[in-house]
Amino acid sequence: MQRQNEQTAYFSVTGNFDPAEITRNVGVEPTESWSRGDHNRGMPREQSRWSLHSRLPLVQPIERHIDDVLDQLDSRSEAFREIVSEHAGEMQAVGWYFASYGPIGIEPATLVRLAAYGLALDYELHNIQSHRREDTRDYAVGDIGSKQYAYFGLKGDFDPDVVTRAVGMEPTQSWRKGDRRGQNPRPQTCSAWHLRSRLPQSEPLMAHIADVVSMLEERETAFSEVSRDNDGVLELVGYFWMSYPKLRFERGIVALLSRLQAAVDCDFYGPYTIASKGSPE
Predict the structure, then answer these.
(1) Cα separations (Å) of 174 from 158, 188, 278?
(2) Which of 52, 58, 184, 273 has the greatest count of CB atoms below 10 A from its CB?
(3) Orientation angle between helical segments 220-229 and 251-260, nearest 10 degrees
(4) Once rounded to an integer, what is the mean pLDDT over residues 11-16?
(5) Top-confidence residue, 35 or 244
(6) Where is 85: in which H helix or E strand?
(7) Cα gap 69→91, rounded to integer Å
(8) Which residues pair with 90 in a beta bridge?
(9) Any idea what DSSP says for residue 197?
(10) Taking the mean position of all CA atoms in its chain, how far away is CA 229?
């Protein structure tokens, strides 16, 4: 029987502090904590840590875990904001994928909640399928390496030319509702406008994200207006032969996406999907 994917999330602060003092200040018991100097596998820890984990079963989607942790922070919101201002806090999302990737993404409302606490968002995604079998070579499609890119996208009932004029940037690609694209005879059900990273697909995914973010920051006010009305999304696409990348959205990126009211969506593929679908051009 195929094992189900597993996910979780937790809030943490790390630094030089007494975890017991944080517990007293927030009035919430941590799921896990340790002090600087405590031994772990015979070695002293370099920093203290205080963390609060999701209470949901591991089979739940990552975003539900993140929301559950935020619900716990909301019970003592002012105290947790003060702690984060003193000790940089982050939300850590972790996933173990045994067959194909699960739903990885985050809605605008959740990004707004993260930004309100000044949190960074860190994804640690483990592609178990690439390590658990000895016959991976039977699925090989050549020494293709990982390929990835990112883009900011809009979709809805709008004229793409109006968006282009509003933001003052040419899209990488766009189409109108009703257009027929490529070999697909069906008309498009909505308009779309995409601004893609300018880097080669061999570059790390975080570099692609940084490139797209830099373009959004240039015209933040204009992008905020069109994003709110047209389902703005930062789309991450990757074909990963051995492992998924480590993703980290620093506080500034989380805050920017929050102001844009944009979502994040990950369209990731592992080795067996690559074997059947091929890698991107």
Answers:
(1) 11, 11, 24
(2) 52
(3) 60
(4) 96
(5) 35
(6) helix 77-86
(7) 9
(8) 12, 120
(9) -
(10) 22
Tokens of 41: 């596998």
Q: What are the pLDDT digits (tens) for 199-231?
A: 999 999 999 999 999 999 999 999 999 999 999
Return the closest-CA partner of residue 85 out of 127, 117, 39. Answer: 117
Going by C-alpha positions, the residue among 58, 117, 120, 115 that lies closest to residue 91 is 120
Encode pLDDT of 28-45 as tens digits: 999 999 999 998 888 999
Quote the pTM value. Answer: 0.87
Contact predicate 257/233, CB 8 Å: no
For the CA atoms of 27, 28, 30, 36, the dihedral, rounded to the nearest 10 degrees, stands at -10
Residue with tokens 């309100």: 116
Please count the other Cβ atoms lying within 10 Å of the Cβ belonging to residue 185: 7
Report, as an integer, the average pLDDT of 157-171. 96
Contacts made by residues 137-146, CB under 8 angstroms, sequence distance 24+: 139/271, 139/272, 139/274, 139/275, 140/271, 140/275, 141/274, 141/275, 141/278, 141/279, 144/239, 144/241, 144/274, 144/279, 145/202, 145/241, 146/202, 146/238, 146/239, 146/240, 146/241, 146/242, 146/245
